Amino acid sequence: MDLRRLEYFCQLAKVGNFTRAAKQIGIAQPALSIAIGKLEQELGLKLINRAQKNDLLTSEGKVLLESASKLLAQAKQVKLELQELKDLAKGTVRVGIPTMMGSYYLADSIVAFKKRYPHIVIQLVDQGTAALEVMLENGELDIALLREVEEGSHLRYVGIIEEQMVAGLATEHPLASAATITLAQFCAEPLVLFHEGYFLREAVSEYCKQQRMELDIRMETNLIKLQRDLVINGIGITTCLPKIFRDDPLLSVVPFNPKIVLRLGLAWKKSHYLSVASKAFIEFLKRHSKTSSCNSNVITS
Hints:
- With 301 residues, the chain is an alpha/beta fold.
- The protein has twelve helices and ten strands.
- The strands form three sheets. The protein has a five-stranded mixed β-sheet, sandwiched between helices.
- The two termini are 28 Å apart.
């Protein structure tokens, strides 16, 4: 079976129109029609409803689309493996990292990795951990920095960061001198929080659901500098990691009681081919992380 024709078929199914599909592929429309016709002839099946605009694929075409998509993905992985046998120093790693972690915790490691492997391309995606997990599931990422993964998960995981979440307050706030703060005390205050889906928001949201309480949220933002300015000016208090606010003379950090520990690590799908470049990235960050690893998995081909 000609993989090129399958690629044309999948592109046509995605676009839904011969003219637009041919333009995106970079061939003439008659050439696309001929290729699809030969695919139908080869399979002995009608795949396209040429007379219907709203339902392009026949029932047989819809079945082929699902199988063809999987086959083409596998072919792409094989091509990647063969390419890496030629030159192990090159490659591309698609990595999902929450903004704060990339800026404050992993920046030095990523810079060091690029110096060690200058020809490996790192494509960084900035999202919350919830969105990153979905992208990892969908094959849009090779690796993502996620919350600790449970045993038996369909993901492999190696822990690289363990940090205690704290409350960030202006130094003049009445709770700034406290030894600890409870979630009940925190949630009773005006708040400046990350958007839903970010790990520094999850513990607060979960507590409020359990207690059936409404929060006084004055601002939602993932911009650290804006959060800092809002907290300093008494708009509200926030959740943060100690490294971010610890050295700021206008801010105080107070640990929660009981402790809220965040364990983050690099995760990837067990069923996804982990490239040599991706393995090198994981191993490098394991060695360069300043905190202890947890739930380590052996990385194999």
